[in-house]
User: Fold this.
Amino acid sequence: MNARYTFNVSRFDPTTGDPPRYQAYAVDVPQGMTVLEALLRIQAEQDGSLAFRYACRGAVCGSCAMVIEGQVRLACRTQVRSLEGNRITVDPLPHLPRIKDLVVDMDPFFETLRAIQPWLQPGHSEPEREHQVDPADWSEAEPYTNCILCASCHGVCPVVESDPAYLGPAALAKHYRFLADVRDVADAARVALVNDEHGVWGCDMVWNCTRVCPRGVTPTQGIGKTRARIRRAERAQRA
Ligand code: SF4
Assistant:
């Protein structure tokens, strides 16, 4: 049986000059309907001007991160009837410039990733076969490869909010993924990219990023491990 929900969706159109406002839409929600499906139904049946971003609908692409009932979540894997009450508030992902309604500009987020050089630097030319890694060696880097670049962690990080130059949890987790990769030999140069207050030393260790990550990535832990490597290297230099 369907249950009637009201979706209060934050609307914003920069061409009007008006401030953001909420618009209410009533939707009959069957069991299993996700917030993304509800938004698609609103767009198809009530308001074709409603803008939001999505692609895979299966929690793989990371495109539909938004604030649902005060928490950053992927709309495609949030079932409406799992939420409390029948009034659902939907806002765009914080800490990124807003383009329209629930669509934010992801460029600043991707810039942070480019800044940490997210590619393998093996220190030699292309091998004839793939670089093989012993599973025991790979286990340290592997959890950090699960990131889907949804920017949920970016949207809940208090340091991102207060310091626009901070690299942020996703970039620093990706950075550790390459630092921990045994095939990569660019450790010293990599560390130099994040060894300041806008890098690993800027993190306040509040763990919001880790709590919100839909893929189980632990940016705070990666940041802590990078700090530990830096301290070890400094101690070794002094000895
Ligand atoms: Fe999203 Fe997690 Fe990657 Fe952050 S670390 S961008 S929350 S998948």
Remarks:
- Strands lie at 3-11, 21-29, 65-68, 71-74, 87-91, 98-100, 103-104.
- The pocket of iron/sulfur cluster is lined by residues 62, 147-153, 169-170, 173, 212-215, 217, 219 (CB under 6 Å).
